[in-house]
Amino acid sequence: MTSIPDDFYIDEYERYEELFDPLASGGRRAHRARGHKAKPQHTPKKSQQQIVAELVDDAEGYEGGFDTTYQPSRHEAEWLLESLRSFYDRELITDVLALVKGGKEANVYCCAADPAIGVDLLAAKVYRPQQFRAVRNDALYRQGRDVLTATGRAVKKTDHRIMRAIGKKTRFGAQVMQTSWLMHEYVTMEQLYQAGGTVPRPVAVSENAILMGYCGEAGWGAPTLNQVDLDPDEAATLYREVLDNVELMLQHNLVHGDLSAYNILYWAGEITIIDFPQATNSLANHDAYTILGRDIARVCEYFAQQGVQSEPAAVTEALWRRYVMPDDL
Question: What integer pLDDT is reported at residue 197 of this predicted model?
Fold first, then answer.
């Protein structure tokens, strides 16, 4: 696994609790103090020079020299730059060039890579924290999955503080689950990349973003497969490659969970499978067979339009019997 700095978070959950739990630390004191009117305090007026200086300091705190070619909207700028700052500070990227894909859960940006990385461009998938709560039926995919911290380690079942926060659905608990959702995508992609899967190269991860290999040209991302018409021979080759990747996932006890032509990039005759936050454990998830069948049906539907005929149900059953549970159909 790509190393994550030891100081990524000293205690990431204490930090989340400070930010999102209104009863945490000082918040508890504020809660107890409600109803007690504070004595008015005299605040001396600031000179115009002081005000300007403070505004400059605030701007430097956000920008800090991280000037981007891409000009985000006012509402987008804060969370975008904050999400990518660690990549900039760690000298992984030098610029954000363009927004190449907008989505309900996350946006993907084309970034200029630092020369030391060995490539010109990288993709940054930046999640919108509020969108995690809008993922439909995410409990279906969480079955059998560990809760992961921001460093990729599994939360122990005996960590009652975290488990209680998750169970009570506090703000702190919601943030823990959001982080886990993102980290599952990163860890899954890293596992498959190391195993030879046709997935982006994972480079780094932060609280709200994943940095990975880029498909396409500067400012022009590779189209998804649903936007491409293939000749029959190429379609047959790529269909086989997709199934090879499905088999590779099953060998590692994984099911993509949202596989379709919309989550497969096509560039220069090659495919790249993307979007793994819903990847589920084929052994621990009671609905894994159904999820696998849906993935394969969607893939087969696209390739049937390109002249490749198959039997999705038969393919699903054969793969399941070969890699998962022969007697559990």
Answer: 98
